[in-house]
Structures are given as structure tokens and as C-alpha cells.
Amino acid sequence: MAAVQGGMVDEKEEVDIKTEPQSDGFVNTNATDGRQLSPSPGSSSSAGSSKTAAGAPEDQQTLLAVLQFLRKNKLTESVEILRREAGLPEDALDSKGVDCGAPGSGGSAGGVDGLDAGSLLSRVTVSSSAGTPAPTKAVADDQPDVSVVLSAYSQQGDPALYKVYYSDLKKFIESVLDCHRAELSQVFYPLFVHMYLELVYNNHESEAKAFFQKFSGDQECYYEDDLRVLSSLTKKEHMRGNETLLDFRTSKFVLRISRDSYQLLKRHLQERQNNQIWNIIQEHLYIDIFDGMPRSKSQIDAMSGSLAGEAKREANKAKVYYGLLKEPEIELPLDDEDEEAENEEGKPKKKKPKKDSMGSKSKKQDPNAPSQNRIPLPELKDSDKLDKIMYMKEATKRIRLGPENLPSICFYTFLNAYQGLTAVDFTDDSSLIAGGFADSTVRVWSVTPKKLRKVKSAADLNLIDKESDDVLERIMDEKTASESKVLYGHSGPVYGISFSPDRNYLLSSSEDGTVRLWSLLTFTCLVGYKGHNYPVWDTQFSPYGYYFVSGGHDRVARLWATDHYQPLRIFAGHLADVTCTRFHPNSNYVATGSSDRTIRLWDVLTGNCVRIFTGHKGPIHTLAFSPNGKFLASGATDGRVLLWDIGHGLMVSELKGHTDTIYALRFSRDGEILASGSMDNTVRLWNAAKAFDDLETDDFTAATGHIHLQDNSPELLLGTYMSKSTPVIHLHFTRRNLLLAAGSYAA
Amino acid sequence: MAEREERRFAQVSRESVTLMAESAGVELGEEIAAVLAEDVCYRLREAAQSSSQFMKHAKRKKLTVEDFNRALRWSNVEAICGYGAQDTLPFRSVKEGELFFVEDREINLIELALATNIPKGCAETMVRVNVAYLDGKGNMELQGAVPAAVQSLSDDLLKYYQQITRAILGDDPHLMKVALLDLQSNSKIAALLPYFVYVISGVKSVSHDLEQLNRLLHMVRSLVQNPYLYLGSYVRSLVSSVMYCILEPLAASINPLNDHWTLRDYAALLLSNIFWTHGDLVSGLYHQILLSLQKVLSDPVRPLCSHYGAVVGLHALGWKAVEKVLFPHLPAYWANLQAVLDDYSVSNAQVKADGHKVYGAILVAVERLLKMKALSLSHPGEWCVNAQTGSLAAAVGYRSPGLSPPPESLSEAAFGIASHLQAGSGGCPWEEWAPVSLPAMYLELYSFFGDSLAVRFSTGPGLDSYPYCPSTLLREPKKEALGQGSNSDTARKMPQLTANLSISPRRDGSPRTDPPPPSLAAAGPGRSLARSSSAQRSRYSSSRSGQRLTGLPRDVFPKARFSSPQNGPPTFTFVIGGRQMGQRCQGRRPFQTVFAPTPPPSAVPPRAYAHKLPVIGRVGKPVRRWTCSHYSLLLPL
Predict the structure, then answer these.
(1) Are A715 and A690 in contact (CB under 8 A)?
(2) What is the mean pLDDT of residues A539-560?
(3) B136 closest CB neighbour out of A407, A415, A438
(4) Whole-structure pTM over 0.80, yes or no?
């Protein structure tokens, strides 16, 4: 499986735009060049920011290297532009450029690099023949020009000394003050990995194995999975194409360390002349230094665990408009309906003020909400308005949930699914349920007595009186009425499924690399969206319809519109598969969870990544936004549910209790309760309101970005509900706050 | 190093690689084989790794061959075919070669193709919904038959429980017998009692299945008879289950071919059995039972089979119960029954047959009532025992009669004796009233049943005691009783009093002196209502009979009996009516005794019947009917 790093459209533009027009003659090198700048979002975004300030020394070095490259290829104009934009003095380039360029321009690519260049070519052709839009990032280190700056393991010390270096550092860190030890210990894991990989890369197999054996036990347990992958890797040839490795080599592992601790480390390494380690820290680690108290072990543990360390603080600084959009004005029909209801039921007056309050609420603009037309949204159809009215009516009958008033749970069990049920979705009004199956089928059931009917054939439709009031009823073919319909079309297991809000469409994403749009009027496939080319793990409609998002094995999430066969946005940045995708209630943002154990929030408008949440210790399999749009809940294979404050970009709570992968999360309609469903055959209810209320938001304004979580899972857990032997793979709150759960019986 | 690796992963040995190469016709050097082996291991691990994500996304815990093949396909490796089966493949070993392999039998395609036993396709995938948790609490009833709590029992008990319930509710009659016998005698099943009671309470869910109902009743009997079981408060639950069988219009009764009558008889017997043996465990049980029986009896909407159940139930509870509930109720009920019995339309045939059943049951009950009453009068000290033995038969054989009846009935019995022996000592009105009414009772009953009663009665043991009863006992006891009875009635039976009062304006012309009329206590308002409403009926029916006096041959008993006492001229009807008006007053009984061959006070249908008349299609006089309805309009007050 060739690893594909989708073009980092949003992030590399700074440099890319300038280099590409002139790079025709250097297709190959230049293509990789563009990628070289993009591999870690950190490095490229810092490149972007360096135009205002010269940035950290590393960034400057990067720039210089790029300049060097450009100059070497006689792209003098580009050099000028870049230099001007970066605000670098002419002489800086000259003086440093020599340092940087010297080893590279000397043509000292070495046998190793030459070999890899060959393999690079083959890789590029392979992946392009597979139709991937962007070639791999595997080659970043293999280009002579920038190899010193951006990569990798070609420089080497005495392999026998690695152990000494590492244990020396270990001894040092163990001897420092307690308050610094936890922080500095973060260095162990990335150092360990990179040293091991360096050994493997330089063909010191036995040393590598010895090194691994000696120190792998010291690593945090939540890196176990990665270590297992590493341990199986002992040959340089194997490094090629190994995804975990690629992630390590191409992205900088981010650490947050207080200034004091960092100084301590730096001084130690300088005293010892421990260049080997210092080089690795310089090249492969991004140390986010902050002023203030060093963090405690638990604080660090809460945030670490992702494939590439923590998120940088600045990655979560962007403003996120998490407020909800103003509800459209549909007062008039509502009035009619209500008056009718009043007349019928003979209980006037009561509803009036209620409705008014509802109206006034929607009129008030949420200061945190994006402007109404930030994202063009489809106009409401009459049927949508009717549905809104229905929704409001139902909402008035909603049960107010709370710790004393827990929801009833209805369990939808899929029988005879033979372990084949892979995805479930309910319509918002809970009238339909759809299941995606491993046998490539999608099945739709009607949950209400109303049966599923197809629209009549074109010939029959011609005979219908189109002026009649019940034309919508007349177009349905009564003969086709049945409780369920099967949709055939995919050629692989259906991993994701999503109803459109208006219940006219259904999306399904499959292992076959496509996302399909089905009509629920004709029960046929309308469109197959191709683009991922690898299994598509999840897809979801926007809450306003029209847009949808999909994410898959190719590590990118894509934003589509139903009437475009190509994606509108590609959200690239995850270091591993995008496993789940979710729209923000205001449709302006998309959250993606990934196997790299991070959650990213993307701005639909700009395509930028605006939030990175780290803290999960396993692949994230489900996400849920709170109804007010302020919070995000995530569930992962580690059995924990994490709650995030989107506005501040911080973790707010950790809910421990599940013993297996969490596949389903859902907030109750009023956001009071969070329900989680898991492979451990339980549904758990959590007091979300309490978790959010307990927040001391003042802490956030300090902007340290540090959280201190107290372990209050037992208090927040409101109940654990067992099914007999049915993993819970989907949860849904009806409009009246009845909890529906679904899963297939595992006999 | 290699050892560590081996511990960590499965490995392909270099020998295997050489072997495979040889089978493909390639010679490999040692070194190459070693390198290849290592590489193969790595690739395998890689494939396994990537296949696991297909498993995770399919939300499974089990890695399938298909997952692995998918991983292979995505890394451009040919998939491995032939291992798609869901079951695990058994490995076979060959000792000599220390070889393990998957057996791959040859399959005869022809046989397969021509096979007639085509396997069925998988059942269709479907969705089932159930309310798993209500308001965050567990579901009350699980789908299974076994209540959840049973699972907390010890294994042995659980097994016993399952075996017994299965045997009793199963198909094998022999097994059932064994199970029932064991249930009767097992001394270690106390812990299971609640669950058996729970199972028995399932009568409500099998009301369509006589067989099952019977089995459950058998179960009740076994439990009741088990001397080691202390039923405690479960008696109530058992009684309610049995009562259900007695009284409810079971679904099984819809089909006339179903013999639900026997079931009711059996249940009634069981009821008395429980009551006499375990009635002391729950206070007030006797009254509750009587009340519910009476309620059914006085509810004309209930089907006849329910009434039948009530009658046999009363009968089974002993003659005192019959006297307390059935007898005072009879006049009112009689009219209802009469209506049914008098309807000869074809559509009514079934109901009429049921009516006869009820009639028979009443007759039996009443007969014993008279017999026992006579007996108790002639042998005052023994009546209690008699009643007991009479109603219980052998069921209580092993219990001492003095201990077995529930306390309240005992006390009543004591009162009864006391009042009987020393008239006027006060106490329970039923008891005091009872002896007085024997002659009247006979008369009244006779008026209902006519000769059918007399004939049968004459064969009974109380025969000789009867004839002088009316004449000897009538006067003095009656008067005392009336005075006392009236007092206690006013004190205790308020609803009845109000009912009477409401009627009283209609009785202005009646020779009533005492405001609170004595009444049959147990009858309550129902009876008085029925009585007063029966006034109209008496007018009507007597007038009708007067019209029909010409002698339409009546082949059913009631008619024959009615016509005989009413042989008088039509004008007589008015007299009857007047007397009926005052029936609750003191003037009634002397009147009745004076005219010994009384016209039946019973030929008096209640209001309900009066309403029914036009429907049934009798020829009624419009004017009379009007008076009827006029009356009935006011009665509900």
C-alpha cells in the first residue's frame, strides 16, 4: 500500500506557487521539492509565518536551503521573491547558504541517496499510475540539496555509541529535579524511535535490535502499537513503504517543554558534546517552548499519545466560529400550524409566548457564529420548512434529560447479519434506518408503519395530474411498497453511511474507494464519487445537506458537493488514515479523526486545519459535536471518550469506563447527556452538562494551553447498559430524546 | 536475537522457503533462503497489520480471511482463494513428518450439482427493535420465559425449576404427573416458591389454552398440598390466579367445544382447598374472595360462564358463603337468567345452554344450602363441622377441622352458633338473620326452582327437618332478628341504606314502618335495587302470565313454576306488586306467611332485564314498559 500524502493544498502554497511555474524542466525534483516543504504541517506553516518574523533558527535554515536549491537551479527570480518575502538579508543567504549548500551541492549524494532516488522514481510512477493526485512523501530525505536540513538518517555516528548516548541521557533525565523530569521524559520516545531508525537505515541491524531490546521497555505503554510495528522492522528495505516510518521521518515530533526544562536539556547536551542526540532533536523534534511552570506527568500524559506528539500551541490559535447559524425565519407557516393545533386541541395562549421566545432566540446573532453566508448553503425548500416545523413541534414535546431523568433506550438489533453489519445511520426524524454491510449492500428499513415506496416509472408519471394537491403522494408506486429496500452497487464493504437531512438521499462509502449517492425516491444509485482511490472509511452529509465529507485510507478528508463529481476541498494533514468525519452543526467546519490518534478540525471555507487535538492513545473511531457547537466528543480504540472545547482548543474531560473500542457517540438533543456505545456491548450515559459546567473557563484565558483534568469519570457516568451480545455501533437520539441504539447480534 | 523474534512473531523458517523454492523448481542458497524467509515474515506481518484495519472498520473483533485478502489486494498481491469459510479449519498432523496441514478433501461436483437437499439460503437480514431500558432502568420483563432473578439461584435449583416447569407445561402427561408428585412432596423447594408462583401467574397469558390452564392449576394444587411449603403471602397470588380461572371469561370459552366448565369446577375446588388449608395466612382473604365473587355475580354484563364460576366458587366455599352472597342475590340474578332461558331464538342457543349450566350450578348450591341449614338447625352444635366437611370433602382430611378454617370464618361461625343458640345476643347480622329465613328461604327458593328443588330436596337428609321449619321457627326468631338486623344494618351498611332511601319516595303507599329495612347483608345495594326494580317486573310478568294463562305449554322449568302459583286472576298481580313494594318492610313477611302458597316474589326481573325486553323480542305492553322505564330511570340513584 503506497502511502499517499495528498497535496497539502492549503499549507504549501507559500512556496509551491512560486516554484512550480518555473519548474517544468525539473519535474521530478521539483515535484518532490514541493513536497519537501509540506511534509509536516508545522514546518510549512512556520515557513509561512516567517515572513513576518524571521522565525526559529530551523525555519530560517529551511528557507536558506530552499533558496540554495532555487539558486542552484538558476531560478533567480524566485530567489529574489522568496528572499524579499521572508525578509532575509542578502548576505544571510550567502553566508549561510554556503554552509547549507556545501554538502549538498558537492554532489555528495552518496550511494545511498542515489539508490533511493531510483526507488523514488519507481514509487512515483507506481502511485501516479494508481491515479493518486500526489506522489509520496517518502523521498523527502533523498534529495542531495536539502538532505542536511530536512532529513534524515544518512548522517551517522558510531553505531556502538547509540546505546551509550541514550543511556547517558536517560541517566541525566532521571537525575534532574522532579518537576522537570516528567517534561524531559517526553524526549525519550521520539529519540528512541529516531535512533533506532537511524541504526536500521544505516544497516546496523544487530545494533538496532540490541538497542530496541534494551530501551523499548522504557517507553510509555500507549506507544505499544507503534513499537510493535517498529520491532518488526529491521531492514532498510522494509523502511520503504512502511507508513508508520514515513510518518516519523517526515513529520516533526512535537513536544511542549517549559523554558526551564529545555535550558536544562540543552545545557546538558552541550556539556556532553552529545551531538548525535542534539542533531536528532534539532532535526526531527519540534520543541514548543513555553514560559511558566513545567507540566506534571498527568498533564503530559493527557495530551500525548498521538503519532506525532502534541499539537503545537499555535496550531490551535486560529479563531473558530463555533456558534450556530441563525435559524431561517419560518414563522408564518408555524403560526398557521399552531393556530390549527390550538383550534383543534382547544388550549390556546400557552403556545404563543413559547413560540415568540423561540423566534427571538433565533433572531439573536450568536457572537461566535460565522456569518450566515460564510459558506453558501442551499436554500430551504418547502418540504424543508415543513420538516423544520415538525422538528419544532417535536422539540416542544422533548423530554428534558438529566442525571435524574435518563433516557429510555430502544435497541435495534440486526438479525442474520452474520457479523456483516459495518455501518448504521438513522434519519434525523428517526423514521428510517439504514445499514451498510460487508457484502457490499446497503439496506434501508422503514422504522415507522409507513412503507418504502419507489416513484413510478416515467411513463406512469406522465399520466399523473400534476396539478393535484396530492401529487407527491400520487407519484409513489404503491406496488413497490415494502418494509426494506436493498441498494446494490458497491463492490466492497460499506464502511460509512449517512442520510441527507431531507431524507431524499443516502450516502455510502465503501472499501472500493467510492462514495455513492443513492436516491431514496427511486432507490437507485445517482452518483459514484471517485477520488479517494483507497477505502473510504466514513462519510457524512452536512447538516444543511448538499455538502458532504468523506475520509479514507489515503489520509485525506474530502469535501464534496452532491452536484460536483470532484471534491471542493481536500483536507490533508493527518499522518494516517482518516477514520471518521463529522460536520460541525453550523456546517462551516469539519472534524476528522484519524489513526494517527489526532483529531483535526478543518475550516470548510479556507480548507485550513484550525484545530489539532491530541490525547487519544488509539485510532479514533467516532466523533460527535455537542448540539450547541461548542464541544466535541471523540471515542477511540483505547476505550476513552475525550471532550474538547473547540473555542479554546483544549481537552475538557476524559471519560473512562469502556473496555473496548467506542464506535458510537451522540449527544442528547439538548446536550445534557452524552451516550457512548462500544464493542464491549454496553451503552454508557455520561453527564455532559456537568462535565462542561465544571470548566473553569478563566483558566483558558491564561493561554498557557495547559489543562488539568481531575479524574471524575465515575461521577460523570450516569449509567451502563448492557446488551446481550450486541456491540453498539450506532446511537441516535430521537427528536424527543429517546435513545436509539443499533448493532448486529453477535451470536 | 532470533529467539526473541521467535517469541514475538510467527516465523517462516528458511527450510520452508527452500522447500517452496524446490517445489517451484528453483535452487536457493542458504543465505538467500534466510534473507527471503526474513522478508517473507516481514511482509506477512505488514499484511496482517493492514488487514486489521479492515477488521476494525467492519466493527468486528475477529480477523477474517477476507480482511487479509483485502490487505493483500491493496498492496497489489494476489488474494488467497479457498479459505473463505467462516468456520475454523481443522489442522491435521502427520506424525512422521511432524507436519500440520489443513485437510482439503476432494469434492464430488456431480453429486453436489445433482443433490436434492439444496441448502436453504440464509435467513433475511432484518431489524428488530425492543425497548432495552426504560427511563434508564432495566426492562421489567425479559423476552425469555425464565424470570431474570431465577438466574441468581443455585445451579441445582435452577435446573430443578427448569425441569419441573418444562415437565408440567410440556407434552408428556406421564412426566407431568411425576413432576407434580414431586412438587407435592419435595421439601427443598421453598426457595423456588416465588418463581413457581410467578409461573402460575402466567394463567393470564394462556387463557386460550385449557390444557395449559389445567396444568397450572395442577401446579397450584401440588404446591398447596406440599406440607413443607409455607405459602405465606403467596397465597394471595395463588388465589388470584385460581380466581382468574374461575371467574374470567377465558379466551378458551369462546369455543363451546372447550370444556371450560370443568376447569372452573376444578379451580373452584382448588379455591376452597386453598382457603381451608391456607386461608389463615392472609387476613381478610375470605371476605375478599366473597366480595369479588359477589361483584362478578352482580355484574350483568359479565358472561354467563363468569357467573357460573362465581356460583361454583361460592358453592365450593361452603353453604355459608352461598347463603351470604348467592341467596340474597338470587332474586335479582334470577330475572337475568330467566331472560336468557326464556329466549328461544336460535342465536341464543349457545347462551341458553350456558344459562342452563348456571341454573344447574345454582340449584346445586342452593340445595346444599338448604340441606346444611336445616341440618344446622336441627343439630345446632354441629353445623360448623358439617359445613366444613360438606364443602371440603377429603381435602382437609389430615387437618383438624377446628384449626383449619381461617380465623375470621371461625369467629363468624362462633357468632353464628351463639346467635342461633341464644337469639338476640347481637353480632353479625348475617348470622342472626340466617336462621329466620330458612322457611322463607325455602319458600323463596321454591318460587324459583319449584318442584325441581323440592324433588331433589326431598331426597336429601334434611328432608324431615324441613317441613316443620316454616311453622315452628317462623314467628319469634324472625321478629327478633328483624329488629336487630335492622339496627345493625343501618349501622354497617351505609351504601345500602342510601339506596333504599332513594327508592323510598316511590314507596309512599307501602305499609312501611321502620325506616331502615332489614336486608340480606351480603346482598348490599345490589339486592335492594334489584328488589325494588323487581316490583315492576312482578307487575309486568304477572300480568303477562295472566295473559298467557291460557296455558302456553312451557317446556322450561321456570315457566311452569311461575304459572302454578300465579294461577289466580289477573287482578292478583296488583296485589303482588303492592307487596313487592313493601317487601323490605316489616309487613312483608307476615303477609307472606299468611298466604302460604305465595306467588313468587322472585318473578321479578331487575331493571336490566326490563331493558332487555324489547331486544329479546317479547311482546310487552307499551304502557307497562313505560312504567318500567320510569322506575328504572330513578333507580340508579
Answers:
(1) yes
(2) 93
(3) A407
(4) no
The answer on pLDDT for B396 being more than 90 is no
* Residue B184 pLDDT > 80: yes
pLDDT band at A287 (very low <50, low <70, confident <90, very high): confident
**Sign of the CA dihedral running B493, B498, B503, B509:** positive
Residue A63 zone, left/alpha/beta (φ > 0; ψ -120 to 50; rest): alpha
CB contact under 8 A, B133 and A408: yes
Q: Which of B587, B132, B266 is nearest to A411 (CA)?
A: B132
Residues of B in contact with A532 (CB under 8 A): none
Decide if pLDDT at B581 tops 70. no
Cβ-defined contact of A408 to B131 (cutoff 8 Å): yes
pLDDT classification of A603: cutoffs 50, 70, 90:
very high
Average pLDDT over residues B415-435: 37
* Residue-wise pLDDT tens digits, B51-93: 988 999 988 888 888 889 999 988 888 888 877 776 777 778 8
Q: For residues B288 and B295, what is the distance between their CA atoms, to the nearest angstrom? A: 10
**CB distance A369 to A586 below 8 Å:** yes
Q: How far apart are the first and last CA of chain B?
A: 103
CA B507/CA B500 separation, integer angstroms:
10
Residues paired with A683 in a beta bridge: A677, A721
Helix (H, G, I), strand (E, B) or coil at B86: coil
Q: Is the pLDDT score of A634 beyond 90? A: yes
Closest listed residue to residue B598, CA positions, set B550, B538, B511: B538
Residue whose grid cell is 425449576: B161
Q: How many whole angstroms separate alpha carbon B615 and alpha carbon B604?
A: 18
Cβ(A493)–Cβ(A438) under 8 Å?
Answer: yes
Q: How many residues does chain B have?
A: 637
pLDDT in tens, B452-470: 665 455 444 444 444 443 4
Chain B: residue whose CA lies nearest to A682: B132
Range of the domain at B73: 14-112
Chain B CB contacts of A229 under 8 Å are: 49
- Please name the residue of chain B whose CA is at the shortest distance from the CA of residue A208: B1
Place of cell 392449576: B217
Q: Does A418 touch chain B (CB under 8 A)?
A: yes
The answer to whether residue B107 sits within a structural domain is yes
* CA separation, residue B480 to residues A215, A331, B422, B429 (Å): 110, 82, 11, 12
Q: Which pLDDT score is estimated for A495?
A: 94
List domains and CATH numbers for chain A.
158-310 (1.25.40.500), 430-442+488-695+710-744 (2.130.10.10)
Q: Which residues contact B215 (CB under 8 A, 6 or more apart)?
A: B168, B169, B176
Residue B81, domain member (yes or no): yes
Q: Which of A372-386, A676-690, B141-155 has the highest mean pLDDT?
A: A676-690
Is any Cβ of chain B less than 8 angstroms from the Cβ of A417?
yes
Report the distance separating Cα B498 and Cα B637, nearest Å: 9
**Is this complex scored with an ipTM above 0.85?**
no
Residues above pLDDT 90, as percent of chain A = 25
Instruction: Retrieve residue B345's grid coordinates.
Output: 331464538
Alpha carbon B279 to its chain's center: 18
- Does residue B55 sit within a domain? yes
Is the CA virtual torsion A226, A275, A32, A63 positive or negative? positive
Examine residue B349 and state whether it is found in any structural domain, yes or no.
no
**Predicted pLDDT at B509:** 41
C-alpha cell of A467? 396539478
Whether A330 has its CB under 8 Å from any CB of chain B: the answer is: no
Q: How far apart are CA A315 and CA A600, in angstroms?
A: 10
The pLDDT > 90 percentage for chain B reads: 1
Which CATH number does the domain housing residue B45 bear? 1.10.20.10
Q: Which of B42, B59, B128 sits opposite A663 (nearest CB)?
A: B59
How many structural domains is chain B composed of?
1
Q: What value does the mean pLDDT take over residues A571-593?
A: 93
